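Support reply, case 0932

Customer input (verbatim):
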Amino acid sequence: MSETNTPAPEAAEAHRYTAAMAADIEARWQDVWDAQGTYEAPNPAGDLAGDPAVVARPKKFIMDMFPYPSGAGLHVGHPLGYIATDVYARHQRMTGHNVLHTLGFDAFGLPAEQYAVQTGTHPRVSTEANIENMKVQLRRLGLGHDKRRSFATIDPEYYKWTQWIFLQIYNSWYDTGAGRARPIAELVAAFEDGSREVPGGRAWGALDPAARAEVLNGFRLAYASDAPVNWCPGLGTVLANEEVTADGRSERGNFPVFKSKLSQWNMRITAYADRLLDDLDALDWPEAIKLQQRNWIGRSEGARVDFAVGGSGAITVFTTRPDTLFGATYMVLAPEHELVSSIVPAQWPEGTHPVWTGGHATPAEAVNEYRKQAASKSDVERQADAKDKTGVFTGAYATNPVSGEPVPVFIADYVLMGYGTGAIMAVPAHDSRDFAFARAFELPMRCVVEPTDGRGTDPAEWDDAFVSYDAKLVDSAGEGISLDGLGVVEAKAAVTEWLAARGIGEGTVNFRLRDWLFSRQRYWGEPFPIVYGEDGVAHPLPESMLPLELPEVEDYSPRTFAPDDAASKPETPLSRNEDWVNVELDLGDGVKRYRRETNTMPNWAGSCWYELRYLDPHNSRALVDPAIEQYWMGPSENAPHGGVDLYVGGAEHAVLHLLYARFWSKVLFDLGHVSSAEPFHKLFNQGMIQAYAYTDARGVYVPAAEVEERDGGYFHQGEPVKREHGKMGKSLKNAVTPDEICEEYGADTLRLYEMAMGPLDVSRPWDTRAVVGQYRLLQRLWRNIVDEETGKVTVVDGEPAEDTLRALHKAIDGAGGDLAGLRFNTAIAKITELNNFLTKAGRPLERSVAERLVLLVAPLAPHIAEELWHRLGHEDSVVHQDFPVADPAYVVDETVTCVVQVKGKVKARLEVPPTISDAELEQLATADAGVVAALGGAEIRKVIVRAPKLVNIVI
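Our regenerated output:
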């Protein structure tokens, strides 16, 4: 009999929640979700039009930062943000929202091109293979993406619109009077009818096409220019300022970066500097990210001042301290400044200080030699506070406009062309860098801001400059102007007005932000939809010729050079395909020969607008249907500039992708293509999953999975190794793949563990041994509803006990608020507490309790929730069920613990009703035996009551 009634081991195992069962459940429900389109979000109009009743729900557009499909695949750190947005999206669906959540792939870029160079494999082949692998890994996690909306930036139908947006920017100019971008055709019309003066006072009709193109190039928001760029010989390409690290090296590859003058495409992002700053205030972003953007844009108010120099015109400086003009005793130009060559005399002026010449026979020799030295340094190296200041006298003198005194003009590498005008007036008594330079070159110093620290007014006796914005001006009087006795603010205003009245200066605003360098000397990027005529004039391709697709090339690599070869020049892969480069086209005025642009766009281009493509991914007629864009991203009371409702990603993109995307959004908004002036209303930066890494005696990383811990140490193959804590990655040999965890425990366990590790915005260490805790939670959940021996559901009908209802509704209330607030770790803690309570109760769950427990778990562990929901007899997916609502009557505690203090020390703890009054609580506290003993008959001077939790008795 016993043998007949006892299930075989394999039969019993069949009904237990194991990794094998999890794998079966997860794969099965993923197939169902795909087949039924469970996660498809309907649009209000267009190709994806859906049920009007669904569209009428409040919408929620949730996005992750674009993933790059790496050949190495995912490790468990990568999906942290994806799981978080998926949990949030599922909760939002269950609280009545129409949710758009999908994921595409940012697939242009350097890694695929480097792989192509190494292997000869076309970048598209390796990239598409990587995308497919990543899709498999992400699907296994049960992410609820609308897969109809997915795409890759390398799809021609996608980058057709990237090219189209480039042309909108190219064919626009920023009207400072209107404070917005306008079509370039409107500017041309103004030049033609004379309502706007052509720069230089020329007649528009008298200009040839090349001259007209040159004029318009000075206005276009996308323009080509010969300008100093960040040239990286080791990569064979130029880089944007944001792609150069703090130590002057390339972000990718860590190669030296040099300043070089090349013709490149730029985006006039500086035109939007004020708006990019001002609109930050209305965004729901972390303050740290806002601060980074404000600092990068770097708005500063001051004055433009002209210093006359010989017969060469004037040197213009920007200064935030025009009040100190009388203290300017010399000037410094950036070595690259265009005026340097024209102001250098043939011989040193009589009486030139030997220290100023650098030991050179002529000014030209000194300047040329110093320029070579400066070109070999990065901007960061030049700005560093070096102990020994370097520079050389140009041999020229300028005239201080307020004092009329001649001041020597130097060049020095601590002045950069990338900020202000590339020239400074040096006030050594009140600027530390100028002070150090003046000491090194024995230059005069003049105190014009009265020190308030008792040091006196003779800079020769000082150890450093005196810098103050709250002091009086001294020794600052000249012809027609005196600043003596004024405070800094008053002096600034007075001298700026004086300069403006004489036409030698004006109040102005300067920005640290530079225009965005948009050219790359690479193959694997979007081609520019630009061709050049035989006269060198650029012509945009018409929309009918888009997309301009990449041609085949035999060699994918740009020409690279020795990393320190600062004199090298770019050579692009596209330039080698002559059949593609040289074409005959009819651009509206007959067939002519043209030459294509052979640079490509940077990898940031495709991610500047991808949120819009998610909205309307199959639209071949327009960038996005206006009604669809308005529905998902339009302005609202809480988001006055519009944008995505939640955008989750790393903080490392603060001044790269995020700033660029904001710029593109504003241009598209100004031109009337979108209703949202900002791409992302709410931004959340997730932390990083870290892992231990181990190095042997040689300092070489060893596989973390092979390290044993014993006797308080760590060993690899019997040899001691050193443990360190940091990023997870292939190079550190400490990566753990999600596939491994899914095999051992299941995807739902992985999801729960990553969400339970800690607050989402905090980095946290990975510990594979701790994963089992969440696995056991799911096993207990399963056992609370399913009999492990028979596989039958064990729930019963009837009303739950009051203690069960209180535990249930407290969990619903707490977990619901936590899920809405992205506090997933505390939500899991509350669900775990509830599940443990139900387990310890030792009685079958009532159906109403079991169903609400499953709904609580559904956003976090969707596969097991879907399985249990259907085993409970439901046919509809758990994904679209309503999230449980807490009954307030059961959320409030029956009693609250009140602490009673006497002389600041706890003498009693009382269990009291939460609604108790102050008077009732005071009476109970003073009558408590422990309190009476503590008082010892002393007179009570005061009783402080904070019902229901605190009574403080003062004697």
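We compared this against your earlier run and they match. Two observations from our side: Residues 802-820 form the longest helix (19 residues). DSSP finds 32 helices and 34 strands in the chain. Please reopen the case if you see a mismatch on your end.
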